[in-house]
Amino acid sequence: MKLIAFDFDGTLSDSEMTVLLAERAGVADEVADITERAMNDELSYAESLYRRAELLQGLSAADVEAAFDEVRIRPGAAALIERLQAEGHHVAVLTGGFERGVAAALEKEGVEVDTIVANRLPTDAAGALTGEADGPLIEGTKDDALADLADEVGVPLASTVAVGDGANDLPMLEVAGLSVGFAPKRAVRPVCDAVVASMFRLGKVFEGYRVLPKED
After folding, report:
1. What angle do CA 184, 175, 207 make, to 5 degrees?
2. Residue-wise pLDDT tens digits, 176-204
3. pLDDT tens-digit readout, 6-43
4. DSSP codes of every residue in 13-43
5. 7 given a catalytic annotation
6. Is 216 a catalytic residue?
7. Which end of the chain has fewer surrounding CB within 10 Å, N or C?
8. Of 7, 63, 165, 169, which one is the catalytic site residue?
9. CB 79 within 8 A of CB 149
């Protein structure tokens, strides 16, 4: 068994949750700029998330739900997850994004992962965003999250696979047994064992590294 850890926004999904929320809050340009700076390693992820969450303060419960309802996983992602699980692998999502959006997107496709490690946007009594953020992957890093999960499920770190695209994925990509960049940012490419731009190609990489058997 291997532990397969996916980033979500920009990797397993082509949606960007904070951008979808920001569009409904009228702060899309400000949030997109902060996101891009973080993904290119110009801001720490924690600083960028706190800044983005603050801009979303007051967004209503209805708008939050509508934004998360727009989150989608990439074509072929559900089938690949199911194929990995059928081979006995533990599939996880490790994301600085938000648990509600991840769960909603997976549910739409009728697929589940074994573990979700994600952040949250607290709400007030009326369900509006407070402008705060909390969760394990704000100050915490994905290498520690990957190591902790590997220990929990009894998989050596050398038997882990990490798939990501941005600077906050670098820690787990650097320590995983196999590191795959999914249309990665420039700063991420040097640490990747392979680079892909579709779930189909990712499946082929997994076959090449014997994570999955070759399909006829």
Report:
1. 65
2. 999 999 999 998 999 999 999 999 999 99
3. 999 999 999 989 889 999 999 999 998 897 887 677 88
4. BS--HHHHHHHHHT-HHHHHHHHHHHHTTSS
5. yes
6. no
7. C
8. 7
9. no
